[in-house]
Design goal:
This protein has helices at 12-17, 53-74, 121-130, 132-140, 144-153, 159-172, 181-198, 203-213, 216-219, 239-260; strands spanning 4-7, 26-30, 40-44, 88-91, 96-98. It is mainly α and 267 residues long. It has two domains: 4-105, no CATH class; 157-260, no CATH class. The strands form two sheets. Strands 1-4-5 form a three-stranded antiparallel β-sheet, with no helix packed on it. A two-stranded antiparallel ribbon has the order 2-3. A hairpin with a 4-residue loop joins strand 4 (88-91) and strand 5.
Length: 267
């Protein structure tokens, strides 16, 4: 049994939706101190043996972001930005709260930064068939781009955060093994075209998104750029539609990454 758990389980919608998810990294279960079946606790499956409560909190926060991001991406057509928040850290054996000071200052810490296990393609494929959240979190341990997408998707969506996701998706499909520039560009475009087709998006959709995201006249402080004196782009998109499009593109990138690349690289 894990040494620590958190109560309450942050966003109840995520907790209730993932209560029966079979994930090796976490689980949500009913609070044994409550008679209300919807009172859930969040149990990170992280080693507490060599970690201070602050380190455990930092690593749990990182895991909570992975959960929230993968959950939002899995429900891409809802354009949600739900999150798993951390409240009290509880010691299982003592049944008492562990004080953690200045939690707002604790930065997320990747608990899988020095993961010892090797990527298992069969395991990834099996997880993908069972549950996208568990699959995405597993792949994120080995693929920096998938990890970055989950972290970005865990935040409140904006044109700035969505553009960062698009940047990450495009960077993930650059094939570093091809050194000849034209061949590399063609290969990248081929992969991008594949992802767009899978997500039922077109170049026009992407251009409308980037044109909107970059335009200070349209978005003001929510623009990626300052006032460059640009006129309004011909084609634009609203934030709700853009969120659904980029999250759907992220979903397809993550879902197909193990097939596109044939292996997962941490580089």
């Amino acid at each position: 049994m894990p040494k620590y758990y958190f109560t309450p389980a942050g966003n109840r919608q995520i907790a209730l939706s993932l209560q029966n998810t079979a994930c090796e990294d976490f689980n949500f279960q009913q609070d044994h101190r409550s008679e209300d079946p919807t009172d859930l606790i969040f149990i990170p499956h992280l080693s507490a043996a060599e970690n201070s409560p602050e380190d455990f909190y930092a690593k749990s926060r990182f895991l909570a972001m992975l959960i929230g991001g993968s959950f939002n991406i899995s429900r891409h057509d809802r354009a949600e930005s739900l999150a798993v928040s951390l409240d009290w850290l509880i010691d299982w054996e003592k049944e008492e709260r562990i004080p953690v000071q200045h939690t707002e200052r604790i930065l997320p810490l990747n608990p899988y930064q020095e993961i010892a296990e090797e990527f298992d393609m069969d395991k990834a494929i099996a997880l993908r068939k069972q549950d996208f959240v568990a699959y995405a979190i597993y792949v994120s341990k080995f693929n920096r781009f998938v990890c970055s997408l989950l972290l970005l998707a865990s935040q409140k969506h904006s044109f700035i955060s969505l553009y960062a996701m698009l940047d990450t998706i495009e960077a993930s499909i650059v094939d570093p093994t091809i050194t000849e520039r034209k061949a590399a560009k063609a290969r990248r475009q081929q992969k991008l075209d594949f992802l767009l087709a899978e997500a039922e998006l077109s170049e026009d959709d992407i251009n409308a998104f980037t044109g909107t995201a970059n335009n200070f006249g349209l978005l003001g402080l929510q623009s990626r750029h300052g006032d460059l004196g640009w006129g309004q782009p011909k084609n634009t998109v609203d934030l709700d539609t853009a969120t659904k499009q980029i999250l759907r593109l992220a979903y397809n990138m993550i879902y197909t990454s193990i097939d596109i690349d044939k292996s997962v690289s941490a580089t």
